[in-house]
Amino acid sequence: MEIKVLGCSGGIGAGRRTSALLVDDDILIDCGTGVADLSLEAMARLRHVFITHTHLDHIACLPLLVDTLFSRLQSRPLVIHTRSDCMRIIHHHIFNWQIWPDFFELPERERPVVRFEEMDAARPLDIEGRRVHMLPATHTVPAVGYRVEDDRGAFAFTGDTTSNDDLWTALNDHAGLDLLMVECAFPESERDLGRRAGHYCPSLLAQDLVKLRHRPRVGISHLKPGAESETFEDLRRRLPERDLVRLGSGDVFKI
């Protein structure tokens, strides 16, 4: 598998793109502003979008992506995978004819260009040899993470979450993990705000990483603009034994 970071920032600004990962050339995990940097040809190769949760920085490009690909999707719809409650939020608040056309009914209700498939926490989804598992997350809205594996290895993306024993238990239930992409949105100076917002800060993430029995490379995402270096360096001091990398748009990992 090849994983390309299209966006991983906790905000926008020069060089900053919000959450989106491209797996090989046909799967997206989240659909933040990083998707806008794909060429039209690259967008046309997309077949599946896995959504972690419905906050705007993770779905901002979803309605624009569908609109851009509308004519191409009439023969093969784009499949959106997430929890049923997340999909209801997207349908009600985005594809509602007021914010954006309801592409679940276009060009016709019987053959829409977008199709929804509910994820089952107990059953991984197989997409041409890549198995996608849903992971628990704790956030201010319904949220999940994802673990993706093939016969060579596995990576996981937490999406947005704060301290959550179930996440680490789920990761430990599998035999291995090569790459973990985990958020650490807030600097330690804003620990209380981070907890209320459902995000990690360095001390909370350092405490939780001890629970992980695997030793993957750990990519840090969702750093808040202006505090990126402060937060990442704090993490490195707290976790000197871990292989940490500060994620950036354009980073590519091969599993």
UniProtKB/TrEMBL annotation:
SUPFAM superfamilies: Metallo-hydrolase/oxidoreductase
Domain of life from the UniProt record: Bacteria
GO molecular function, one term: 3',5'-cyclic-AMP phosphodiesterase activity
CDD domains on file: class_II_PDE_MBL-fold
Pfam family, one: Lactamase_B_2
UniProt domain Metallo-beta-lactamase: residue ranges: 17-204
Segment forming the signal sequence: none
SMART domains in the record: Lactamase_B (SM00849)
GO biological process: cAMP catabolic process
PANTHER family on file: HYDROLASE C777.06C-RELATED, HYDROLASE C777.06C-RELATED-RELATED
The protein, known as: 3',5'-cyclic-nucleotide phosphodiesterase
The species this protein was found in: Ectothiorhodospira haloalkaliphila
Lineage, uppermost ranks: Bacteria, Pseudomonadati, Pseudomonadota, Gammaproteobacteria, Chromatiales
